[in-house]
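Protocol step 4 of 6: record predicted structures for both targets in the notebook before any analysis. Target 1:
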Amino acid sequence: MSIQRDASIKFHELGTLSAVTRWIGTHDEGIAEWLKNARRAYQPDRANVEEQHRSAVLLLKDAAGDAPARIALLDVGGATLEDVTQWSTWQDIDASSRGSSLPEEQTQGNGGKAYMYRLFRGPARILGVRNRRLNCKGFEGNLNSLERGTPGFMPDNAAGCNLPIVSCESEIKKALEPYDVTFDELPKDIQDAIVVRQAFTLVEGIDPVNFYKGRIPADDLIQKIIRHDQSTLAIQQLRLYAVHNGRLINNGTALEPESIPPYPGFECPIVSEIPEELPGEDGVMQSTTLGRSRPAGRVILYSSRENMLTAYKKLKPRWKVTYRTDHQMIGSKMVSELVPATPGSYFVYATVELSALEPDYVALGRIRPNDGPLVKAVDQFVADKIRDLSKEISDRRRQEQDQQALDQVHEENRRLDNFKNRFLPSGGIGGDGGIGDGGKGPTRKEGTHSDTEHGEVPECIDLQWDISQILRVGVGVNFHFDSVLRPRVLDSAGRLVPRAKLEWFSGDRHVIKFEDGHLLNAVNKGVTEVWTQIRGTNIRSPKVQVETWLVDHVLLTPRTLEIPLGKRTQIIAEVTNDEGLRGTNVFLIWEHDADDPLIVRISPTGWVTGNRPGRTSISAGAGSRTEGGIWARIRAEVNVIPSPDQPERGGGFPQLLLTGRGIDPDTGEIRQGDPDQPALWQEVRDYQNNIWWLNLESAEAAFFFNRRKEDIKTWRGYHAQKVVEMVIQVHMKEEFDAKGEAERPDIWARHKAVLDSYHIQLTQAMWEKLQDYVLTGEGLE
């Protein structure tokens, strides 16, 4: 096809101007661009500023009387006529290089101009003095207007274009006067550089927007500037000072980002070379060296002693993955974007150095890299590295609990847990709890005994398992047997005997063996019987026949499923053994691959419960993945979605369990503590199971637990107080849930009054009984 073209390409001027400037929205972003330009101007192919002279000063002046506020950056480069002329062109692809062969940051000269155009009401200009010539060009006019976006010499061509001057000193004096600072009050190295070079550049804007009454929050603004991605290289390569209302900030020393103390044990950065090729999302390999035309890249991981997410002002802005090439920063992403909900990731940040990202992945404004197959492949590599370090930190944060101490605290907790039932609905304060319904109080069948009616002398062991059924387990599978057979020790009247200690036994230890009393391990193919027995007695449970299968193949169905929050669905695992027999009732090891371990809870029989919104994939198998185990080849993809229904609390009295010791009823496994969760911890599924956890990994609980050996009274006081808090929260929940739709949003003072009322009633009533326990360890029965 043929075409007769227009004489020239046309753009709507104001529309184009808006498009290339709207990415600048804050003063820290704009000043970061000024700094980047100053750094670039100092390079050998431009002003060629010697290392000892590479410095700059940020000038801030609040509004006073009729004088508006002002912001400026003073550097020692000295903008020439060529510089201000080149500066005048929007979207100039040669703005930085100007034909230079020096490998350097490539810019389009829009950032600094966009800042001057969008965020100042008054004039904004670049003033340069060099070689006894003065050049001044800038913007003036209404905000966001085409008129303002058209640059011009200031005050006019005659006085602002290559004007001969008498001295550099007289011009710097005039330039500094509005900022209430003299040349002699500038940092010494700035003074020396200007005197030696007889040059300076002042880029400034008058009457900045978004400052209340023209008052510049200098400390906050400076912290944002030095944490900004685009300031990084500049602050590394030049000394930056700041003056506010004529006074030097930071005691006159150069500004730099606050150091981030590393996490103990991870003091040294972890450097990983990026492989020459990485798989993309579609499996296609992506070259990280552009076919070996660029150097290999690397990922540098750093750790933080503090949780960066919760340190909102200082560390959260730096909790990110920063991307840079050899010569420029191209943006960043929050760590949470790459590894959402990953335990330990709050203590990790990273830098990606990869030359191949330039120029295709360098976006206007350099806020974040352009999306594309190479960035996605690199992100996956970085995410894996962050996960590895996060897991190490998370494991380090978990307290190594003494098992004997845990057993002792478990018994203390059982006594406190039983004691607290006297103060729970529906029996009222000081009551025995009564018989509840609808999730209130204990739930029991007619003719049975209440949970509060305990026996002392054991008579028999009851299993909640049909002993006529064979229990099948894959070889290499282990799980807590208590959670499956759920034994109960009863006295002659059918009352629970809670203090009885149980041990599990196997008829053939070469088929089934038990560790730690109740952790079943299927070690070899075969058939045997297992039973439990009260320690130190001959009282045994009925025997259960167990058949162990040598697993050959596992098939999961369905392959995809959505689970509403708080609901559960079973994934069927069809197991084929080495003899070709098939079954769907074989106990296996189940796992999911989400970074957040509590997105779903999975039982040994494949019941999956949605606990937190998110996606994961699930697999099941027998034996170790890395040592010849057999696992499902195709995983089941699970999406936990919000539920339209409010979760309902389980029946019976709420139960307090210990992390690191208590069994999670959804998984049959010991619930591990979490340093990032509160001491009194309850997830959605815990609420539905009517369980609370005393999280011994929380900072406060770990502190008191670790002091237990030296000061057991302090520990008992803390433990008892957590039980009181649990009871108060249960009462609050009962009261406000009972209102149903009648509950309306209310002021905090009224809710606080109800909370205080419960504190007064329950704390006094409970602590009358708890005092003796805290002091002596006795007195709860």
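Target 2:
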Amino acid sequence: MPPAKIEPGRDPEMVQRTQKMNVVFALTSIGLLIAISLMVWADYNREWKAYQTRFNDLEVKLTRQQIEQALGKVDAARRQELDGLIARGRGEEAARRAEIAKAQAEVDRLKGRWYSVDQNFRFTKARIDVARYQYEEEAHRGRGDAETKLTGLRKLEDQWRSYREEREKVEAERDAAQAKVAELEKTRLAAEKIQGELFKEKNRLEDKLRKIQPGVASFIRNLPVLDMANPTLKVNQIITANLQDDVIFTGTPKVDRCTTCHLGIDKKGYEEADQPFRTHPNLDLYLAGPHPIEKVGCTVCHQGRGRATSFVGAVHTPSTTDQEKAWGRYSKSKVYERWHYWDYPMTSKGTTESQCLKCHQGQVEVPKAEQLNAGILLVERYGCFGCHKIKGWESLRKVGPDLGQIASKTNEEWMYRWIKEPRAFRATRMPQIWGVRLDETDEQKARNDTEANAVIAYVRDKSGKRDYPAPPAGDLVAGRKLFESVGCLACHRVGDDKRGVSGLDAANFRAHGPHLDGTGSKVKAGWLYAWVRNPKSYWHETKMPNLRLTEKEAADVTAYLMSLKNDEFLARPRPALDKKVRDEILLKQYLEGQYSVAEASSRLAAMDDGQRTLLLGEKTIARYGCFGCHTIAGFEKTSPVGVELTEEGSKLVERLDFGFEEGKIPHTLPAWVHRKLLEPRVFDKDKEKRPEELLRMPKFHFASEEADAIVTAVMSFSKEQVPLAAQRQLKAEDRAVENGRRLVRTLNCQGCHQIGDKGGAFRAVIEDQLETSGGDTLQAQALSPPMLYNEKSAIGEGARVHTPWLHGFLSDPGNHVRPWLQVRMPTFEFSEQDLNTITQYFASQDKVPYPYDPRPAASDPALVAVGKNLFEKWQCVKCHVVAGKLPNQEPANMAPDLAKVPERLRPDWIARWLADPGKIAPGTRMPANFPADPTENSFPEILGGDQKKQIEAVRAYLLTLGRPTLPAGRIAARTE
């Protein structure tokens, strides 16, 4: 290119500099344009917009399907008939086109006239208000022109009235003209009205489709820069009430933008859609009802960073390593790493229920949170709080038995084999301390044997010794029959007994007490006989109740249980204590850690052989925390050995040591806890550590499902606080119910009784026994412990019985209502506080007065006589016991003693029971003597067939049973 010509008189250097500056300016302008364009695009090209576009396509597709479904619901013949009517109407309108046009023109003219008159009417009303104000002001000040103002006001009122009359006249003419038009078009209008009703849902969906279907307008609205006006793709957010996020120790309002991507979360129809568009499970419970999404939001339950609008920024938590790898697509490094600057990562799949406790504090069980409830129960049953401090759990009793008298119960040989490998003896919740490492060496195995021998020596040395005489000879067959019928199987199992067991094995009601396999190889017969007769005489804190067995019954049960042997377990070898290994452990692991090397050696040399063994036993118990589950002399005030779990669910994953498991499990807290539960010492694998540095948590042999539930429970131990206003507030009656539930769970009442939709496990045992013996399994209800609360009818024991009677029965359950039953209500030796807790629990659950002290009401002799007549006509005594007199029936067909009705049953409940027994106790054999249709009443001649009065009469008679009654002659006279 030839150089540019320079105009005469211009400086050549200046021209060249200007040209260079123009080039630089052009290039920088282009660069700035590119940078601004990239900045705008980076701001515009958001991850969530792609989700919203995909969901819009999904919603359009679903809406079209719904339109087709709505159209298919209308009968084709009916649609054709309506189309014909509309066509006929249009034909009629075409023939009357001139007449309709004239009528419509009149309507339009009258509408215009009405508008003009209406304006005059309204404006005059406004002028009247002004004139009235002016008159009142003049009159108040006493001015002379008040009368003039009043005259003007009256004139305006007359004018307003005339406009009103004119408007009403025009309205009448307009309505008449509109009616004429409607009459001319009535055939089509009537058909279209019916069609509109039939296609109401279709029309609604078509309107929705028009709004959501993408087009040119939505495309332009969503263009960069233009999208700041009114885009269709936009961030959705929920500002929750009374909820905050803890951001650097400062509470900030919780804002959830999760629905920006999870667009179908609160909409039905997307139950099978891929994430993030799937409908939330159990929609009515979690996003409506008690948990409305517009008030609760998302992150209070799911955690995560609610203000984020990207996948990584929301701090999603993977559940598996495969999911973690799949999520690598969201990261530039192709390896998913959660956002590390947020302390509350999203809950992983299966652990969301862990967040329920933040709002449902003080409740024994959270409704519908089965995983959480099971996990909390397992934490209680396995005694995790014994080794790990958990705030609020300090008062719970240790889960293992008191070892203060263990030498009276069993022998040293069994104890050694038991603590070395408990599950080799039978299914148990006792964990295994030794032999559970994945990389155990021969040296470690020798240490294990030595430590176990030392522990047994210490426990035996500290144990008291009580002599129990040999029991009377018992009948093994009779003992087994009694054991299986009296109620022992409600808490215990023998062998692979799965009757009445559902869900997690260790969390079911029949796992409340230990398995009894091998009992004869474990305990001494004299001890067992004394134990089954009165458990609290050996251990006052035991949960085992007293079944009030006679000497003969106790001897029979003892004979049966002592027949349950495990000779193979007792035949296991027991290595002798290796003194060299013992001394090495004492010296290097314990003494040298406390004293200088020289002093440690001298202290060891000063001990005799027995003292060394006992010291190692004491140190080993202290190291492994055996006292967390058992009461052991010398460890009464020792602190737990494990880390505190009060806020474990909020622990940062950066504080966890994954060892060489990194990459084998997701890098998350739930995954770490799950792995820890299944293999508690796996994070030591392949590491170089001194013996005292090695992990010591024992192995509980959890099933994977049990570990899942416990993880949910551990994740619920959170430091996150929910404001009081957002929590479920417990009223006085609610607290009474929760206190009762706690005691009911502690004592495993639901092993025998059904309360709500849970419990009654022993009934399955009775059903199986009846089926085996060729009986009718439908009789199981009559032979089982009663249901104590029916959730459907909301009627239970509290509404059924008098408070004094229930108090007395729980104190002395030997006073049977059904004396023929084989299953026996045990004696729990309740304290007065416990009795009050249980009686108030049932009353509060049924929302009936408490305490309820019945006062005998004067009964009408005539009404009593009518009730007696109905009682005899129904032949109630064929099934019911009356004053101890048993009917000539099989036990399964017998009914409770009616002589106890006045002292036992509440009158209101009696009336409800007589009216509909099946509603209160589904499956009961009690007949429904009062049909739903009163015309089907069996005795219409009695009290005119009035069923309500008949129920009152029968109740009046029942309330006289067991009490002194009026003389027969007087009753007869009143009846006449």
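Step 5 preliminary note on target 2. The chain is about 50% helix and 5% strand. The chain has a mean pLDDT of 89.
Proceed to step 6 after PI sign-off.
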